[in-house]
Amino acid sequence: MKKQKGNNPAVKYKTKRHRRLRSKNLVSAAAIFILTFAFWILAARESETFDPLYASIEEDPSYRDGVFYIYDIKDYTRFDGYINRARKVEKENNEAVAVDVELMADINFVEDRGYGSFIGHPYIRQSMLRYGGVFEGNGHTITWHENAGNGMFVCVDRKAVIRNLTLKTDPIVWEMDEYGVGILCMVNYGTLENITVEGRIEGTQCYVGGIAGINRGTIKDCENRAEVFLSGIGDYGAGGIAGLNKCKVLKGEDEQNPVPAIIKNCVNTGKVEAPWEAGGICAYNDCAFIYDCGNEGTVTAQYQKAYIYPDHPDWYEYAQVAGICGHMGWNSIENCYNTGKISILEEGIQATHGIAGDTLDWVCTVSGCVSLKGTATGRMRHESVMELEEEEFRRWKDNPAGIPYRANNWQFDLEEAREKLSLAPLAVSESPLTRNQAGVYLCEEFCLRAPEGFSISEVSPFALCMEAEPASDQMEAEPAGAQDQNGWQMWLLRLPEGQTDINDDLDENGWITKDTVHELWLGISGAHWLHPSFSWEADCHVERTYATQGTRIIDPKNCLVHYRDDILAQAAVGENGEMIDNVVAVPISGNMEDGYQVKWLLLFTNKNNNYRPPLYFVKDALSGFVYLPCQITAAEGDSLYSIAKDLTGEGSRYAKLAAYNQLDVREPLRIGQILRIPEEWLADIP
């Protein structure tokens, strides 16, 4: 009988069995292969020998003719690895990290993880540690890693250029207590151009900027739309474009001609907040320049003062918060504007600034800058800017040359002065003898006579104001010099009882010195608002002026005048006298034996241009101030007749002087004899 193929049960059984065995073996082999491959990868990672990069960047298919083309996240990640490897392997070769880039598409690190699993690789990281080439963004957008510790670059080299790029990020949080951090880079030595950043960046005890933490090169045509936030104690700040804008001389560069740090034609629209130092463009600008920039975002300081040295609680800095630059060093700001609200969260006396703080040092230049009126707090501000109402501001932006520039940097404001200086009420009543005389004010504590052409008025229970009298309608023409003096003012203010004590600062002989007066000045709470920037003994003048009547000095007590040295003051205020440099005088009563007292503060300013009046006006005004009771000491050759003639111009009034002092008119005066002067004579009343 012929056998039929395929019908043998044994054969069928054997075939199925073989199939099952063969399938099982294939599965086992695949499993072994996968496990072996996984083990190899893990072992490779553990030993850091696995490298997803090519041995050389020239071998990478994305590298052509000296340019690396980035089309997707994998290309970007490989390029990041090549640059970081070059930095580590070829430390002294600047060209190794100077590879040019063309970004050919948008990249999103949040939606497309790509090579994210290789972030633990020794060279593939979130940031390029150092870059020196030209990174052409071609207008594309990079959406950065979630919860990234820092931005795209750590250091951008001097010859590097990064341009035409938008960088979006969820919060970048930098918690190290040093250096700086920005969404694009930590520090820039090169050129950043046409960069836009969005999102939020947070730093702790470091300089924080929207674009760069620290700029030591050039940033131009950039915009920050991100929130910039700084926390922690320290001598740092936050800025919309850069935290710190300051030059640095690198190895091989000319120390005499350093490469300046420049921020030009940039705009901030994001919110900026820091403990004490913040600016819409940068927090601190030193050995650097800011040109043609604008701030449209809110800028906020958290505290009135910064206790930046935890181990020294008595050392602090005042808040510096402004639309463009919070704190100025040696630098220049030109043609910038601010429309953002500038504020300090903590209640207190510090003013904010439309453009910049600390602008009144002779090493600073601020010109052509405009702030929207009402954006900065306080009228007693130290900055040389033009403030415009909203409609004027719009016209200025459309045509800056169409509105003549006028500085409006500082105005004396009595109500604000009461807060900053803690002024006490005058607590005096004008004598009936002078109530009808505009040029003299007599009260129970002092007599004040105004120079010719000036009048004195009690404008508030807290102040007297001496200023030029209004021109008469009958006057055909103002006398020579009258137009100049129309803005001159002297404010007489009372200091709180016990606020000042100069008796501990006298010299070894008990005399008042220049240093004594400087310490007195610094001891007046809030007095820094009346003076351009912090002053030292070396850059101040202190003069003594004595009260006079007729041809005679009637009050030998000191009336001390405190003002900036002429040369430094002229350098500080510029060619047009646009910056503040007021004069402050403190009449001092008392003597070495009984101690000295300071009750009054006299401030001289010009309400038209906010610069100090001429010193001759200051001295003329001070020569008319005398404490009561007023006494003179008879000298050799003095008589009642000669004293009356010196004081009033009429010797025949000697009988009044004798009666006032209960003296016999026939009795000669003794050398050293003390005579009191009739109050009506001090008021120059016949």
From TrEMBL:
Limits of the LysM domain:
630-677
Q: Which domain of life is it from?
A: Bacteria
InterPro entries with a match to the protein in the record: LysM, LysM_dom_sf
Q: What is this protein called?
A: LysM peptidoglycan-binding domain-containing protein
Organism whose genome encodes this protein: Diplocloster agilis
Starting at the broadest rank, the lineage of the source organism is: Bacteria, Bacillati, Bacillota, Clostridia, Lachnospirales
